[in-house]
Amino acid sequence: MKLQEKAENTSALGIYFHIPFCASSCDFCAFYQEAPQRAELSRYITGIEDELKVYTFADIETTVFWGGGTPGLLPASDLYRMGTALLNKLSKPPIEWTVELAPSVVKEDKIKALLDLGVNRISMGVQTFNEKYLRVIGRRHSAKQVYKAIDIIKHCGFENFNLDLIFSIPGQSMDDWLLDINEAKATEPAHISTYCLTFEEDTVLYSKLLKGQTHKKSEDEDAIFYEKTWETLENANFSQYEISNFSKPGKECLHNINTWRMNDWIGLGPSAASQFNGSRFANHASVEKWLTNMHKNNERFEYLNEISSKTFLVDSLIFGLRMNKGVNLKFLRQRFSDISLTPLNNLWQKLIEEKLVILNSVEQLYLTPKGRLLCDSIAVEIMNTFDE
Ligand code: SF4
Q1: What is the CB < 6 Å shell around ligand 1?
Q2: Are residues 253 and 318 in the same domain?
């Protein structure tokens, strides 16, 4: 079985490490992160080693993703120590192991440490190659650092790398954006993720928006960027497999597909969320609180909720439909046999007539390109159907 097929049918467990440190805060970012202090980093690594002891991953397949924050801020020795602690818990190497890196922190010794551990995928937050727009979104690295970082990872032997890009930045024209895509393509990544800039509450960008110091493109302008992105990357032989994700054949991110298929994952580190055995829970979003509460049964998590079959079904539909393959209704009926999918029939019929979805003879349901642009409102309609 190919890896891609495996992810669609997998029982692999996702393991996510949240590394909550950033040298500075980007203006668009709403993630929990802290400025790193040496003592704090040491306590963090020890905390991860302790938290790993809580779990048993014996004899199962896993995908691993280290995100943040900026995992690459950790020195090579800490990356290696944390990776070794993880590998000691696994009976077989992860089928995919991704580490997110910010361009400004990529150094040869860190990349070599990751390779030694068996990391087989790098994801780099480039956002844009244009200095002007890097400043607009408050990202502190330079375009020169991006090129240097990509050189280092390729020189060390990583061919399987992703570049994250952002579009719809205030002031960014379509030509500016197409230049970014071209620059990305020229570095020959295996995967490109393209995200529409969002203005999350509690971010610098959002407060600038409220003060009239920046502006947001309209939904119609965003839609034009989406469509042009899909067309341009498709022409460059990057297959779209999710609204924001494109890859060369066989290089889709298995860990993310696993999550969107509503399979289980365990999150370690402050603020990391998990979905396991029918529950969702999250660690405290502070290094201090995470460490203090780690061994207290009742206070270990910021929240712990049992999830109903209905919620799992709705989320399987919403996240599944964001993928180009869509969802298989027959499979979902079997997986959620205690819930009837019949209430959705009228919605599917309406969306088929509006040419927003296609339902084929083997009950595979997927969005058309027009439907993909409207996936958020389709998600609301799915939720409303079950609330009625
Ligand atoms: S976008 Fe990434 S690097 Fe920037 S503040 Fe957020 S987590 Fe840190």
Answers
A1: 22, 25-26, 29, 31, 33, 68-70, 102, 125
A2: no
